[in-house]
Specification:
With 168 residues, this protein is mainly alpha-helical. The chain is 74% helix and 2% strand. The protein has helices spanning 2-9, 13-28, 35-60, 64-93, 104-111, 123-140, 149-166; strands at residues 112-113, 118-119. The radius of gyration is 21 Å and the shape is elongated.
């Protein structure tokens, strides 16, 4: 970018065109990443790390109410870290969704509609996302006693894997 800026400032159009073509080639080959997406990935990773810490704390907690609250927090955070990647997948694939109603299930529905030949995610991933959304829903509605350690840990690992696969 410094070479492009210098070429433009010095009105060296041949060098500016060459630098521009280099930037486009790097972008086309995937060598350039969006800073916005890099930041989003970092935030999602941090949120999942906090969720994992809550799940681990719940595993050692001796008091049931505290353990259930920690699992609820972990489930809520893991679900929150899944919403933006689902939205980005919809945007990248041009799949329509209502931006005012972007729940996990609504975004999931935009990505998986076999009857319309839309399968941006696999049938197996669709089933996992349904389970994760259910766990997130339990947390959102304060039904902490229905959330298990196994489902939360599985959700955190699954969401991490899903993000890595679909949004490298």
């Amino acid at each position: 970018m410094a070479a492009l800026k210098d070429a433009l400032e010095s009105a060296d159009w041949i060098r500016a065109v060459g630098a521009s073509k280099a930037v486009v080639a790097l972008y086309d080959e995937g060598a350039l990443t969006s800073p916005r997406l890099a930041i989003a990935r970092e935030i999602e990773g941090d949120i999942l790390n906090i969720a994992q810490a809550q799940a681990e704390a719940a595993e050692t907690s001796k008091e049931a109410p505290q353990r259930q609250a920690q699992l609820g927090i972990a489930a809520f955070l893991a679900g929150a870290s899944l919403e933006d990647p689902l939205r980005r997948l919809c945007d990248a694939g041009g799949f329509a969704y209502d931006p005012q109603r972007t729940s996990i299930s609504k975004l999931q529905a935009a990505l998986y509609q076999p009857s319309k030949q839309i399968e941006a995610i696999s049938q197996s991933e669709n089933k996992h996302i349904t389970a994760w959304a259910d766990t997130r829903n339990k947390a959102d509605h304060g039904r902490f006693s229905e959330i298990t350690q196994t489902e939360v840990v599985s959700m955190i690992l699954g969401v991490r894997s899903f993000i890595e696969k679909h949004l490298p």
